[in-house]
Structure formats: structure tokens, C-alpha cells
């Protein structure tokens, strides 16, 4: 296939100072949960992006000195010359595919707790730690500023020696340099604070010094926020940002523009849609001749072209779209836009950083597995096992298994009880704000329909006898899980209903099936991810009075890892949903729920006519257990939620792993390569 000529503009080379990007696809710095701990894992992950056609591929935030240490959040480092070797792995790999490599030099200020380095954190004043640790920063004096400038320069020189082509001055996201620019924070009385000119001084010096140090070989980029804050009407307040921008314009070779509100810039799709930064970008391009990059979770080539043509940006910046599909540019180049694995905006990728572990992605099961498992996002070795494969259940696990097995050349039968494919994804995508989750199904369905070796059987609920009658060599059970009505008290599952109230105890599955409580309702969320909040919103939309209760101290506490917890709570408050935190549910008699304080057990009664239990799920593994009885003429596996209920990403991963491993000689005792420091001897 050939490229659609309307997309040609995306493939124009763009000059950035002394270097030239081969096209307009720009993977902006994004955290990977790998940082300095996993250099080989990281290099292989970034390489795949370059191979997939991204013209510029950047690191995550890269600390310039141990006084900027964000552990347990993984970050890159350029602290000494030994770090250069680690980064070389990445730059060489990126260069091998003709792309440029970028590094985002970083000092965290009050956002770096220095839990690992144990140095006092420093910022422009003595401020409380940004992550809530009970310690404060040291106020930087002139000698600290001199040190900082020297560390930044030395890190830039190391970056150049490591082979980077683009070196960043990072002046956003509440890190040290952003605080120097901030008029409310920076009230210093010296030449680095107070007036606009003084506040900009440090950033200006760092840009100039970086250019002087490495500017002959490397482009110098500045990451800068286009807005100061959001007004009460939800519109950005530009304030003095334009003036600041004008004062610095002409110094950097590239502007990387984002906004201050992280939860909007990388917002989940439930609340933030494609191209959300555009309203903030309005003035930027008109004020500069320097190339500009910005993000917007762009996955549609037409939207990308429109952003360039309308002068919003010069580069299509991406973190998440490049994670979900490292080969997005190549697919557009080859006229295969329909093959793009579109990001669903769930931010599971970001949770890796938040949890201090390597990145994973709901849509792309190979993300983070490029080195340790040798998985490529587009290529799978041809099949080695003989015989047909039957997959029972077409949720994310079954669909991905069928897709990947089909790609390997297996003859595959995919049987699904329902009419629609997609399992939980199809059901959940109908809940408020969740429509983009359907992309997990849509990408796979679209791929499956092109595979002559995969047969799909809808409305086919199979029994054990049916499975045996099909006469295949391999069977994978992917029948999913259903929400339970019980609560779990850390030891056992127990019923909540008393006195015949069981019929008024519902689950998210009931709500998704269209069942509604008859009056005021309690949503009890012991799961802690998005489902409790979404169900509460769904019921509120029916005009019901809704109370949300959770044993946790915060609403949707796990969704803090995906950056959406705060938006979920704000949404609940906006919709008038009652919120009870640190509250457990003891019982429900059909008219009253007995709630207990999670700390002192004090009871409280709430008059409700229904309770929705968002607690845990029961694997739907009956079919698997029946088939497991006795010996079988086929290999048998269970995958996804029917094996161990989890997030959608885990189901996709399980399906993919099953397909990769079928017929392979897998070492169960040492299934992974372990990326760790090599010790002498
Ligand atoms: P996962 O997340 O593990 O992929 P889901 O719950 O999303 O699991 O999907 C499981 C799918 O399996 C559902 O679409 C369900 O209709 C289907 N299913 C369950 N039991 C059977 C069966 N016996 N035969 C065919 N399909 C089944
Ligand atoms: Fe997109 Fe979710 Fe993958 Fe992140 S994890 S890239 S948000 S699909």
C-alpha cells in the first residue's frame, strides 16, 4: 500500500538547530518506570519507537545531579561519566534507525524527595516537599545556583558524549526551573526573583550555557508551559507567559510546549479527549519562528495533518500514542492507518512510573518486553505447534490470543457466547466517558477480520462437550470473570444482605446489563480503581440519589497511579454524589445500609433501596475445570480474567503470552531475562 498524499506533510524533514529530524513524528520525553535501573530494557524500548518511524525519540526525565533524586519513581541520570555508557545503548539503537535521540535534563526542586541520595532537596525557597514527605527544601543561595548551573552544563556535556542530538532545558511541571518562573512562588529578593526579568534569568542562563557547551552538535530544546493557570470558567489564563516566551524566544532551537495541569495534559480519556492542548497553543506559533512540538494523544493522521496545516505545531508530539503503537508513523507512511493500535487513554502506562516498575500498556502487550522477552510489537515468529487452536471467549484475552495466533499462522477458531466481541471492554465502554476503551476490541476485531486462518463464531456458548467435539489440538479458555455480590474482609468473602434483601444487592455487571435500583443507592467501592466511580456516575445520570463509600481514605485510590483519582472525585462532587471515605459496609436489609467507620468501627445507618457492590470478581472458570477432569487429546490453558481477574492490560498480555508461547520451549524456571548490573568476576 502507498501513503495517502494528504499525509505527506507529516514526513517532511524539519531542521532543529544543528540537527535535522527526518520527519514530524516526535516522541516527547515520557517516563518509562525504567530509568537508570534498567538500561538495556530501556534502550530496546526506545529503539522500537525509532524503528517504527518516530523521527525523534527522547528519554524520560534525566537527573543532572544526586540532589535531584525522585526514587522510588524511576528516572534517568547523567550524574557521572559511567552514566554515559548506559545512555549510549539507547542513542546508538535510536540512531541505527535514522532517528534523533533527545534527553530531558531535569532538576526536581521540591518535587525530588532525595529519599535515595539523602541530600537535602533544594528549591528557590524553603518549601514543603511536593509529594507530602515531612521535610522541606533548603532555600538555594547564590552558590547553590552556581552549582546548579555547573551541574546542568556538565550533564549537557555528558549528554553530548552519550550521543544525544537534542538536549532539553526543562522548565515546566512544577520542577525547579518552573518554580523560578512562577510569580507566586518566586519572591526572592536577589537577581533571580521578583521581577519577570529576574525570574526568567536562571532559565535564560541555562539555555545559553547549554548552547555554548553543546550547541554546535546538539539542538537545545526548552519545555515550557503555555498557560499560568486555569480560570474558574475553565479557560486558560495566559497571563505573563507570552511575555516570558518572547523574552526567551530566539534562544532555544525547539520549543516543547505543554501546560501546567498534568492531569489535563496527560488526562485519561474519560475526562480528556484528543487534541486537548490546542486551546492553549493558540498564540505560540504566531510568536516564534522556532519549531514547536506539542502533544494531544493524537492517533488520527488527519488530525495530525490539520494541526500542522493550521499552524498549531510543527511536530506531532506523542508519548502515549507511541507507547500504544510504536509503529504508528510507519503505518501512516505505508497507507495502513487502519492498522494503528490506538491509545485508549487509560494511563496504565503511567502507573508503571507511579508504582516504580517498568511500563506496560493496555493496547500494546509488548511494551516493556522488548529486551527481557525479546517481543517485537509487529513481528511474531511463525508457528511451531501443529493443529488447530480453539479460543473460548472473545474478551481482550481471547481476542488478543486469536489475533497473535493468527499472525503466527495458526488455524484459529474463536467462539464467543454473545453477539458482540470484546467481553468486558464492550460492556464497560458503554459507561459514562469510557467509549475509547472499545478501541481494545476494535483494533483486534479489525485485524481478525483480515485473517483467513481465523474463524469467529458468535452466539456460541460452548459446553465442555462442545469443546471436546470440535476436535482441535489446543484449547485456551478465556471466559472472563463476573463481579461478586460479597465483600472481602481481608480473610473471607461474606454476604452483605440480611432479611431477604439479596435481590437488592447488585453488581457492576447488573448495572451494565441495564438493571437499576428502585431509589437511593449506595455504591460500595472496595476495588479502588475506576469502576466504582463510573458506576456511581452512571446511576446519578438516571436521576438517582447516589452515595459512594469506600474503605480507603480516598476515592478511587488505585486510580492515583493513573493520575485520574482527583478528577474522579471532582466529578463526583460536581454531580452531587455523596462521598464517604474510610467507611466499610457491614450489612444491608433492603431499606438501610449499616456502614462502619474504618478506624473505630462506629456504626452509621444510611437509608438506601439498593447497594451496588464493587468489590471483587469471581473467575468464570467452570468450563476450564470441567475440561481439566480426565485426560484430553488437546493442550488446555486458561488465560485472562478467568485465570486471575485483573486489569484489561493483564488480560491482553495473557492472551499475547499464550499465543507467543504455544509450541515454544518455555523455561518455566527462568522465563525472563533480568536486566541488572553486571558484577565483576
Ligand atoms: P478477559 O478480560 O479475560 O478477556 P472478558 O470477561 O472480557 O474476559 O471476556 C470473556 C468473554 O467470554 C465474554 O465475552 C463472554 O461472553 C465469553 N464467554 C464466557 N463463557 C463462554 C462460553 N462458555 N463460550 C463462549 N464464550 C464464553
Ligand atoms: Fe494509551 Fe493506555 Fe497504552 Fe497508556 S496504557 S499508551 S493510555 S492504551
Automatic annotation (TrEMBL):
Pfam families xref list: Oxidored_FMN, Pyr_redox_2
- Please list the cofactors this protein needs: FMN; [4Fe-4S] cluster
* Domain of life (superkingdom): Bacteria
Which keywords accompany this UniProt record?
Flavoprotein, FMN, Iron, Iron-sulfur, Metal-binding, Oxidoreductase
Q: Which GO terms describe its molecular function?
A: FMN binding; iron-sulfur cluster binding; metal ion binding; oxidoreductase activity
Domain annotation FAD/NAD(P)-binding: ranges = 388-625
What SUPFAM superfamilies does its record include?
Answer: FAD/NAD(P)-binding domain, FMN-linked oxidoreductases, Nucleotide-binding domain
The keyword Glycosyltransferase is assigned to this record: no
Record domain NADH:flavin oxidoreductase/NADH oxidase N-terminal: where = 10-338
What is the annotated signal peptide range for this record? none
So what family is this one in? In the N-terminal section; belongs to the NADH:flavin oxidoreductase/NADH oxidase family.
According to UniProt, the name of this protein is FAD-dependent oxidoreductase
**What organism is listed for this UniProt entry?**
Roseovarius spongiae
What's the source species' lineage? Answer: Bacteria, Pseudomonadati, Pseudomonadota, Alphaproteobacteria, Rhodobacterales
